Amino acid sequence: MASSKGLKKVLLMGKSGSGKTSMRSIIFANFLAKPTMRLGPTLHVDHDNVKFLGNLVLNLWDCGGQDAFMEAFFNSERSQTFSGVHVLIYVFDVDSHEHKKDMDQFVSCLQSINELSPEARVFCLIHKMDLIKNEDDRNKLLEERTEELAKIANPRKLTVFRTSIWDETLYKAWSEIVYQLVPNVSLLQEKLAKLCKLCGADEVVLFEKATFLVISHAITSEHQDQHRFEKISNIIKHYKLTCGKTQARFRSMEVKNSTFAALVDVFTSNTYIMVVMTNPRIQCAAVRQNVQFARSYFEQIIKSKRM
Fold it and tell me: CA dihedral defined by 183, 187, 190, 192, rounded to 10 degrees?
């Protein structure tokens, strides 16, 4: 069991029906998007300790968004709820017809965080963006909400993401949130860059084993698709779930065509690795060998990162 130092308290808040429990279930409980439509509303608080990357444990508080519960969080349960928080994730529903009320509740939440957990990182998710069909309209809304939230939070810094359970944006947001909680991640990234160069690869990506969230990556050449890692997370997570239905266990896969080759394999006890190459002279067998030689070294790095 992780020590208290390994626990990172994460508050997941927002109005009822905004999609908090659905996204949590997809990321941490291996749900596909469609079955989450049958999930009921959270009553009061759903506590869950999620083991992530060894002894790092996310102490996740999924807080019910009904008015009675929000009132309690901001008053009688304020200290219990907002003390010792490492990360606040506040979810806004783009389909909400109570914008002012949503913002007022966020202000109350931010005031409590500022007083009781001033060092906490704050992330806002503008959720259900799939309901807005035009990409230009989605970008415009994100820009407007980001500006509005930044003014409300000033001088506190916050990060705003657009998300949907139906595409890779959910994985992008949660990958960046969890990335902030992994201690000494710069060391991991430095060593990953050396492995990338050693393999002659275009890029190397490290995924957390259970969630397939991106932990770290290294690249030697730029790629035009800025969401490719999250798309891969989404695809492979779905493939792993499909394998599970047939009692098969996913371990590795190799994809190759005339322009590139990609290897996805178990790396350390808590991670998968993906190596992408465009140089046709590099053989996947040689890359597998380099990955095998690097396993024990990276296992030690990850263990040394545990709190």
Answer: -70
Report d(CA 44, CA 203) in Å as an integer: 44
CA atoms within 13 A on the CB side of 71: 3
Tens of pLDDT, residue by residue over 10-56, are: 999 999 989 899 999 888 887 777 778 788 778 789 998 988 776 78
**pLDDT tens digits, 277-288:** 999 889 889 999
User: What gap in Å lies between CA 249 and CA 38, rounded to an integer?
Assistant: 27
CA 179 to chain centre: 8
Residues in CB range of 47: below 8 A, 6 or more apart: 59, 60, 61, 62
DSSP output for the chain: ---GGGEEEEEEEESTTSSHHHHHHHHHS---TGGGGGPPPPPSEEEEEEEETTTEEEEEEEE--SHHHHHHHHTTTHHHHHTT-SEEEEEEETT-S-HHHHHHHHHHHHHHHHHH-TT-EEEEEEE-GGGS--HHHHHHHHHHHHHHHHHHHTTS--EEEE--TTSTHHHHHHHHHHHTTSTTHHHHHHHHHHHHHHHT-SEEEEEETTT--EEEEEESS--S-TTHHHHHHHHHHHHHHHHHHTT----EEEEE-SS-EEEEEE-STTEEEEEEE--TTS-HHHHHHHHHHHHHHHHHHHHHH--
CA–CA gap between residue 162 and residue 143 (Å, rounded): 10
Please, are residues 162 and 169 in contact by the beta-carbon 8 Å criterion?
A: yes
pTM for this one? 0.85
